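Hi L.,

You mentioned the student needs an example of a multi-chain input paired with its predicted structure. This one should do, with 1050 residues in total across all chains.
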Amino acid sequence: MHGLMMDRPLLIKRLLWRAEHVFGDKQVISRDGSGYHTYTYAELGSRVRRLAGALAALGVAPGDRVATLAWNTHRHLECYFAVPGMGAILHTANHRLSEDQLAYTMDHARDRVVLVEPDLVPLLESIADRLPLVHSYVVLGKVPADTTLSPVFDYEDLLAHAAAVELPELDEYAAAGLCYTSGTTGDPKGVLYSHRSTVLHTLALCVKGSAEVAEDDTYLVVTPMSHVNAWGTPYACALQGTTLVLPGTHPRPEDLLRIIHDQRPNVMVAAVTVGTMLRDAHNSTGRRYHLDSLQRLWLGGQAPPAALTEWWQQNNGTVVVNGWGMTETSPIATFSPDVSSQGKPLPLVEMRITDEAGTELPWDGKSVGELEVCTPWAAREYLDDPRSVDSFREGWLRTGDVSVFTPDGSMALKDRSKDLIKSGGEWISSVDLENALMAHPMVHEAVVIAIPDETWLERPLACVEAQGSVTEEELRNHLQARFAKYWVPEHIVFVRRIPKTSVGKFDKKQLRARYLECGLPGISP
Amino acid sequence: MHGLMMDRPLLIKRLLWRAEHVFGDKQVISRDGSGYHTYTYAELGSRVRRLAGALAALGVAPGDRVATLAWNTHRHLECYFAVPGMGAILHTANHRLSEDQLAYTMDHARDRVVLVEPDLVPLLESIADRLPLVHSYVVLGKVPADTTLSPVFDYEDLLAHAAAVELPELDEYAAAGLCYTSGTTGDPKGVLYSHRSTVLHTLALCVKGSAEVAEDDTYLVVTPMSHVNAWGTPYACALQGTTLVLPGTHPRPEDLLRIIHDQRPNVMVAAVTVGTMLRDAHNSTGRRYHLDSLQRLWLGGQAPPAALTEWWQQNNGTVVVNGWGMTETSPIATFSPDVSSQGKPLPLVEMRITDEAGTELPWDGKSVGELEVCTPWAAREYLDDPRSVDSFREGWLRTGDVSVFTPDGSMALKDRSKDLIKSGGEWISSVDLENALMAHPMVHEAVVIAIPDETWLERPLACVEAQGSVTEEELRNHLQARFAKYWVPEHIVFVRRIPKTSVGKFDKKQLRARYLECGLPGISP
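Structure written out for the whole complex:
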């Protein structure tokens, strides 16, 4: 027998209802050149309903894919609510992908309308001939006079002339958003979020012990809104009436310093590399900007290195927090109030670790296995992609991450399974080696990859971006004090810059390929 | 098109999964006579699976109603997870109802099995002949030798011999719990919760700005588990790994003081009257027990009077918080970190106020209207009850409460619509008068009801339980300083004790009936 409770679907528009009704006066602040664009959640709601009307007038129907190619701005935020709110699907295309990858994703998604930032128009023009299904382009600002996009519309013009429409009731399982993995191997894979998964993920971000997004916070969201919904923070901020600060078009490190100085956010959400860049920019600008409002720095994409965490704590009193997740998990699945681990599974997130035979391993602080996840906000398959079979097993998502759980339910990431180094029958964690290297004062960034070895099958190779004078031997001594002897890499090479992926992670795939093709400074494959 | 996310139903067993796996070592502490019974969430989980096995062996099938007639104990907590977990429906029968009402609810619910506390066996025996569908009685402790209940089983015996069963996957809309309203008018009405509504309500209790149930808290749950799931706190504590302290069989005020002294909870959840009783008991026991661990006192059932709030703040440093809800809303729908109002709607709770014609009124801090609610954890109808038509309209629950919203989304309760006094065309709030009276140092408790009046249609009548020497005139002067002249009651009567309902609220229905029948001290109808 069913319960007799209201059959009230979990829809993204419910988040907006609370922003408008309960927190209507709270602000959304978007960097706009050297100034700021500011309005309230009440105004957001009214513009969302006009955007929904404008898109309907352009012919957008329920189920249609509408792409954004955009920065973190108030207009992008409007798309976050209007597109799924009207029953269409928001594909947040990632302009940091290669042109080929971007074209692949937009074609694969079958995008019909693209909302594009003025400065990204040239990028879109260069792939437009590969997007035969797109029937309308909308520029999120001034339309460049010489654009070849056609037909092309001015976003503000559309809104000015649009009739507001009420967002309809929908099935909560309806698709709401589409995001592609950043493609560390092969073509990007599409993850199709539903209203239900988005709402549940949003709630989980606001729970005590999780990110705890709260009414009194001011969030600076640097994590791109083009990447896994900026970890869901825009939705959580709206739900909780959190003041939301968006860094606008192409923010440089000094822009971010200025925003922090001006808007005094108490929380910043960003990739680990942004935490590093801001530290460096703060030092190189003579500490001109005040960063003391920042109580919490939520860094993601990879485990924050201890040296970076300590700098923020000691120099600015900022606590670095982190979690774990992936595009396939919306993305947040664990959260930690510090960096001692990746934290505990959020409510409704079930996890296990398994060995190579698929046997579940104990949470004993020692057993290392592949992390598997089951939650209403994890993907069950990729969109139209035969590779799904490799990642999903018996209802669980196989993450490809290798981790260990302590008995108190805290998860520590050891590696990506493909980055784990198997040397002479023993596992070596590239992440642990990288963190130890980056804790050395003369190391700016470091990445460790596996290279083939005749004797040991694989051996670690460390690539180091130094920030002062340091020798291979000094670094080896530094590591020898911390790890078993067989962990210490024979080869440590100094590189000018460590390659990064489109979302700012160390690009180990590129390093491995470069090594195998032509070697690295001082050593050949 | 549907999203491609895991189809993972929201089930009560997911809450237990987190308690067991992430917080397996955290404790559940139940008062047991003058001592305590203590075990971990891991042990809770293992006993839950055995209880499910035992109930299945007794013949309990999915959809069956299983009643508890029980105090707040670890065994009752086991029923909270095992009964819905196995697909049956937990009817938490309320032993504070009159015998007739209790028999009515258990017959109406079609209960098949009753789990009964040893000291409540006589009560159950007295109505057992009115429960023809019950096929098994289980005593949550020692079976009284002379009981007439039959067949009757010993709970611990059943568990000792039961096979543990894994809790099955279920439809999230399946009924999970059944609770009856406390029946301030007519027979109690049944509200049938689903797994989905219970899980969503639980999440909402843990969100920042809501009750914020957290891992580091120790909750003393005095609110009866027989009444709206103790406001959902046992489920929220399990989900968050909160240390849970349960006051056991028939706790007296001094028992509660001792529990607070011994277990040092930082949060207590209780009816407003319990807050009053504890204050009085603390004073009368010479402040022998240390209550300083209590940071937060969550009082409900009615708006906490200011005098009580101040006492807790000034004498113990305890912040009184409150919310608003009813059996029909699971129950929590708003929450406030203080007592300045009943707080803001929780995430996913939509509210509006309407006038008598059903027109929506603005949130302007002035307009007073009937509160209506829409949320996935509100009832859409009562179980098998023709009175449903009066309470539900166009998908909204009409609460019968009258309230006002400020523009920042905070709701202040003015009255029950049937308790509001309409005098000479003007509204008078009985709640406001009661709070003002109870702020007087010589007033212990006060209740205000409407009585018929030839000139004004209705006039307020104040019934006061004094705690010292005070006159009618002194109280009138006290009120005159605070309210418009027409608000001040002509009649103030002193009563020995104010009658309470089964859940500790002022019983205005009884007072009104008593007045209309035979008058009150000093005045006749």
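You could point out the following to them. The longest strand of chain A covers residues 443-453. The longest helix of chain A spans residues 41-57.

Best wishes,
N.
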